[in-house]
Design brief:
The complex is a heterodimer of chains A (326) and B (335). Chain A is built from ten helices and twelve strands. Chain A has 326 residues and is an alpha/beta fold. In chain A, helix 5 packs across helix 6 and helix 6 packs parallel to helix 7. In chain B, the strands form two sheets. Chain B has an eight-stranded mixed β-sheet, sandwiched between helices. In chain B, strands 2-1-4-5 form a four-stranded antiparallel β-sheet, covered by helices on one side. The chains are: A alpha/beta (326), B alpha/beta (335).
Chain lengths: 326, 335
């Protein structure tokens, strides 16, 4: 979509289905996005909007009943959708890595951090004991953890340290793309903020591109270059983060932004968004947001809006159908 | 209901509903012979008055949920006392009194998915509370009252929602049922333990607005326990900030936010993401986290992270002292 040719990752019209006995449920519906080298893409949405499924699809980690129904994912020019397991093994972790949501569950409780780091390294590359140790110490220092913790078990580390050791693990091969699924959601605000700052600093230093999924729109506001807002399996709005924040075009984006009380300025009454996200087994007709939309028009109920472009922002909303409407 | 509440409002207004005095709770860790204790809550004093929303804010492990459970009599305090309308809870031992207290000061839980039994319809929880706590109502009255309560928590049409099972409801609707069950007891004060943290962002505000409405329309007080200082500001009148089992600071919300006195409150406020504010990237990111407080000695528990710590901070536990009108902080350095 944006910057074709220079993109590290290009996703086009990706559809992911969960195949159930009652038929397929489409969790990701025609999602297109691209990530340039070194770029930080934030993806925000509520639970069940398909954001995690999209990540798993990109990382080729989907397990039945989920499957890619159609569309393409091109990473470094290679087609990820048709790539076999053997080829995937070569690029996994070396070229892209994944940081899971909950470090509490992602780390093995009965293995030391060092053993788990070695495991991750050895699964993808042969290495001598000495190099292994050296590299493990290096990556732990990189994320601000004292290398003595190579001998620690996960329960001996705080939540923030566990999450940072997960990030260390993702960085052992200095990949070009790091995919992060709400890495800070289990942390307290102070730890969350320090982790975000650290991710951003690491990104500057190492230069990896990042896809960062979160339900907390305010969290990525200062960190991502571009932002995609997802709702009910679809991207509703995608564009430069600052533009989306300053001028949210899609009623869902502005509703989401208006759902965060602020600690500064006047105390003002907020409305949130009435209703709750739809069941994807029975998505609403037309625009999927129309049952909750404050600016709904008659044809929103029947015609699904395509993307319209405004100031580098793509927005899936009929309000922008006219050439001058804004 | 309205008439009952109208009785002598001026006299009621100043008298606290609930008061905690030096409330302390320690948990033994390790085996039964262990001498090590986790100090979950130490010397907490707080007062909740009628028609007031008090927010108790802290990070995980700060002891805020333990305070709620102590107030709900889930745990017995290790030391200190809880006074309800001038009577110590320790003296209220008869079943009738305990039941009465549970009805007047009910709790709403964090997890709307785990706190409703999946095998019963919504009506079950609401009706049960009505039967147990308001025996004077006839079956017909109960039905009417249940419908009124569901309406007041924003679930319309009420008869339809009463016959639903929890799995047919969204998270926000379930949490409203949690409030409906609490309302059925005719509460004075609802202890709400992180009632919105598991809900979707777009429906959280609705539940916060519900709390504000219930206070306005039914005069119910709330102790709102949360880690989210922005939502605390949104609904609460007063703010109590906890750190590592102790109260760090308390005062009127706007005053605490505008003039945070305790260094921990300042840190907490600086960490809140605010898309409307320009970012300032500090040279070093603070990485420390709240400690687990096991057999602490004297001294301020924040001193390891505090940029202003002086020698006195490691020798003497700071006590709460007034720094501005109705605004106190437990810090040796703050002025």
């Amino acid at each position: 979509m944006i910057g074709i040719g220079s993109a590290l990752l290009e996703v086009e019209d990706l559809c992911v289905d969960y195949v159930t006995e009652k038929g397929a449920v489409r969790a990701v519906d025609r999602v297109s996005l691209s990530v340039a080298p070194g770029e930080f893409l934030g993806i925000v949405g509520e639970s069940g909007c398909g954001k995690s499924t999209l990540l798993y699809a990109i990382a080729r980690l989907l397990a039945p009943p989920a499957e890619i129904a159609s569309g393409s994912i091109r990473f470094r020019g290679d087609d990820m959708v048709t790539m076999g397991e053997e080829d995937l093994r070569h690029i996994r972790w070396r070229n892209y890595s994944v940081v899971m949501q909950s470090a509490m569950n992602a780390l093995n409780p009965v293995m030391t951090i060092g053993a788990q780091l070695s495991d991750a390294i050895l699964a993808h590359q042969r290495m001598s004991h000495r190099d292994l140790r050296r590299r493990s110490e290096e990556v732990l220092r990189l994320v601000g953890i004292d290398p003595v913790h190579l001998k620690s078990f996960p329960h001996q580390l705080s939540g923030g340290m566990r999450q940072r050791s997960m990030i260390a693990m993702a960085l052992v091969f200095t990949p070009e793309l790091v995919i992060m699924d709400e890495p800070t959601s289990a942390l307290d605000v102070v730890a969350q903020r320090s982790l975000m700052l650290q991710i951003k600093q690491l990104q500057k230093k190492i230069g990896f591109a990042a896809i960062f999924v979160t339900h907390d729109m305010s969290l990525v506001s200062h960190f991502s270059d571009r932002l995609a807002v997802m709702y009910a399996g679809q991207v509703m709005e995608i564009g430069p983060t600052q533009t989306v924040f300053d001028r949210p075009r899609h009623p869902y984006s502005s509703g989401l932004l208006g759902s965060f009380p602020s600690i500064k300025g006047e105390r003002q009454a907020l409305q949130g968004i009435p209703g709750s996200p739809p069941d994807l087994a029975h998505p609403p007709s037309g625009c999927r947001f129309h049952p909750r939309c404050p600016r709904v028009m008659p044809h929103c109920k029947t015609i699904e809006p395509p993307f319209f472009e405004r100031e580098d922002v793509q927005v899936r909303c009929h309000l922008y159908a006219g050439s001058d409407g804004d | 209901m309205a008439t009952e509440r109208a009785v002598a409002p001026s006299a009621v207004r100043t008298e606290p509903i609930l008061e905690a005095r030096s409330l302390t709770r320690h948990f033994r860790i390790g085996g039964p012979l262990s001498r090590r204790f986790l100090h979950a809550v130490d010397d907490v004093d707080l007062v909740i008055r009628p028609n007031e929303i008090v927010a108790l804010v802290g990070e995980s492990g700060s002891g805020k949920s333990t305070v709620a459970r102590l107030l709900a009599r889930v745990y017995r305090p290790t030391r200190g006392e809880i006074v309800y309308h001038g009577r110590s809870l320790a003296t209220m031992t008869a079943r009738k009194e305990r039941l009465g207290y549970a009805a007047r000061v009910p709790m709403v839980f964090q997890d709307p998915y785990g706190s409703l039994s999946p095998v019963y319809r919504v009506s079950h929880g609401v009706m049960r509370a009505l039967k147990l706590h308001r025996p004077e109502l006839t079956a017909n009255d109960r039905e009417q009252e249940a419908q009124r309560i569901l309406k007041s928590v924003g679930l319309q049409p009420p008869h339809e929602f009463l016959s639903k099972y929890p799995h047919q409801l969204s998270g926000g609707q379930r949490q409203r049922i949690g409030f409906a069950q609490a309302l059925a007891c005719r509460p004075e004060l609802i202890l709400a333990d992180e009632p919105v943290s598991m809900l979707d962002v777009s429906v959280r505000i609705g539940v916060l607005n519900l709390m504000a409405d219930l206070r306005r329309n039914e005069g119910i007080s709330f102790l709102y326990i949360t880690h989210d200082i922005a939502s605390a500001r949104y609904v609460a009148d007063r703010l109590i900030v906890m750190y590592a089992g102790r109260i760090a600071e308390s005062g009127p919300v706007e005053d605490v936010l505008a003039n945070p006195k305790h260094p921990y409150t300042q840190l907490l406020l600086s960490a809140v993401p605010d898309p409307r504010a320009p970012i300032s990237l500090p040279a070093t990111s603070e990485v420390a986290e709240p400690p687990r407080v096991i057999d602490p000695g004297e001294g301020c528990r924040f001193r390891y992270r505090c940029p202003y710590a002086i020698e006195r901070c490691s020798k003497e536990t700071p006590q709460m002292r007034p720094l501005r009108p109705a605004h106190e902080a437990a810090c040796h350095v703050a002025t």
